[in-house]
From TrEMBL:
Record-given protein name: Aspartate aminotransferase family protein
Cited SUPFAM superfamilies: PLP-dependent transferases (SSF53383)
Residues the record lists as N6-(pyridoxal phosphate)lysine modifications: K293
GO molecular function, one term: aromatic-L-amino-acid decarboxylase activity
UniProt entry tagged with the keyword Transmembrane: no
One annotated GO biological process: carboxylic acid metabolic process
Cofactor names: pyridoxal 5'-phosphate
Entry similarity comment: Belongs to the group II decarboxylase family.
Length: 461
């Protein structure tokens, strides 16, 4: 054994304790450190011939890189839709690395069964029936892509071909209809060989991102060939929701696969006041839900559900003698593109076991209350205006005058130490988004964000 490895193995308990101290320091600074610090990158270095050992590497990381990381686990990181990491999820993630399980094969330990049971808990959390089967994937992009891949096989099955065996060309042209699709839908279509141009936009309701049902039915009437409808349960800019029940009812007159992108909007099911927004989710053929958003587990973690597990296996089946037969309960290696991966379920299992439905409901409801509070505050700040109602956990706003992308980028940069906001465009207007999904965020943070916005606008006037 290399002497550095041997030394680290001998001192592992003490070295892990030093790592714990460093991790605790990172988390302890979240409230006060700049949310996005100034980026002063160190000069590149060649790969060392002789390593520094864990102690030396930890010291260099602490000195050189840790101060440059954003406070993305913290309460005022409002960019994208990024959750933090609950204490239980953090513990689960540490143990995930320590146990180092590959849960894709039943030949090795109980990890695959823990994953199946965690999927069952998540299915219950989101109000889905037992007809839905699921698997863990890396994020919403992969979850959407897996759903679309199963849809592609379903469409081929109805046309008498197996796309998994014969390729996408055997299916021919596919039409994918959606009102406000996330960018990952087009990316998934590109990867699956269906092409970005398969995505056909459908008009939305006036002043909203929800699909216009009459326009959707008209589009379905014009479709000549295989069709997928991608419905949204929570759009990126304004967290708008398509009427899932009404879209599902259209299948009585039209033949299509219904995929629902509920990456973070699916968590509305936890709030009694908002659960109606996802009524009809269970009727979908496939569903995307991202867990490193509102479940507050570490990157990377998402889940996909489908009512068609046999078709899923047909797409992702991996044939190798060392894997054994499929059996009645296929291993996870046959359900997603990955043959090997970490035990993503463990962090989710820990946070669900630790806090249950009630604990995660409280996080969702508090985040919604924070978003509404910021929305109300923005209405009172001269120089700002809301671009859309605060429907759930995202606040979309812009400058009252001259809302150019450059001026908004300047405002976001001025805000960066106090809060991280991401740019967007809504209804043709450059804007900023504040997305609330962190378990730490509270009313105190809203006060700080509001104060910082006022100071930035006062300073620019």
């Amino acid at each position: 054994m290399h002497p550095r490895l041997a030394a680290d193995l001998a001192e592992l308990p003490a070295l892990l304790e030093a790592t714990r101290v460093q991790a605790t320091g990172i988390l302890g600074r979240l409230d006060e450190q700049p949310v996005v610090p100034p980026l002063r990158l160190p000069a590149p270095e060649p790969l060392p011939e002789d390593g520094a050992g864990l102690s030396g590497a930890l010291a260099e990381f602490t000195r050189t890189w840790a101060p440059l990381f954003s406070a993305s686990p913290g309460p005022r990181y409002l960019g994208f839709v990024t959750g933090g990491v609950t204490p239980a999820a953090l513990a689960g993630d540490w143990l995930t690395a320590a146990a180092d399980q590959n849960p894709t094969s039943a030949l090795d330990g109980a990890a695959p069964e823990l994953e199946r049971r965690t999927i069952g808990w998540l299915r219950d959390l989101f109000g889905l029936g037992t007809a839905h089967h699921g698997a863990f994937v890396s994020g919403a992009t992969m979850s959407n892509t897996v759903g679309l891949a199963i849809a592609r096989e379903w469409l081929g099955d109805r046309a008498g071909v197996s796309v998994a065996e014969e390729g996408a060309a055997a299916l021919g042209r596919v039409t994918v209809l959606s009102g406000s699709p996330h960018s990952s839908i087009a990316k998934g279509l590109s990867m699956l060989g269906l092409g970005r141009t398969a995505l056909t936009p459908v008009p939305t309701v006036q002043d909203r991102e929800a699909v216009d049902l009459a326009a959707l039915e008209q589009a379905l009437t014009r479709v000549d060939g295989p069709c997928v409808v991608v419905a949204n349960a929570g759009t990126v800019n304004t967290v708008d929701f398509d009427d899932l029940r009404a879209i599902a009812a259209l299948r009585e007159r039209h033949d299509f696969w219904l995929h629902v992108d509920a990456a973070f909007g699916g968590f509305a099911a936890l709030s009694p006041d908002h659960a109606d927004l996802v009524a009809g989710l269970d009727a979908a053929d496939s569903i995307c839900i991202d867990l490193h958003k509102w479940l507050n587990v570490p990157y990377d973690s998402a889940v996909q559900f489908t009512r068609h597990p046999a078709l899923q296996v047909r797409v992702f089946q991996n044939a190798a003698a060392y894997l054994g037969p499929l059996g009645e309960t296929p291993d996870h290696v046959h359900l997603t593109p990955e043959n090997s991966r970490r035990l993503r379920a463990l962090a989710a299992w820990f946070t669900l076991r630790a806090y249950g439905r009630a604990g995660h409901r409280e996080i969702v409801q508090r985040n919604i209350a924070c978003a509404r509070a910021l929305g109300e505050a923005i209405k009172t700040i001269p120089g700002l205006r809301l671009l859309a109602p605060v429907r759930l956990n995202v606040v979309c706003f812009t400058l009252a005058e001259e809302p150019t992308a450059e001026r908004l980028a300047g405002l976001a940069a001025e805000m960066a130490e106090e809060a991280f906001l991401t740019p967007t465009t809504y209804a043709g207007v450059p804007a900023l988004r504040a997305a609330f999904s962190n378990w730490r965020t509270s009313g105190t943070d809203i006060d700080r964000i509001t104060g910082a916005l006022k100071d930035c606008l006062d300073g620019s006037s």
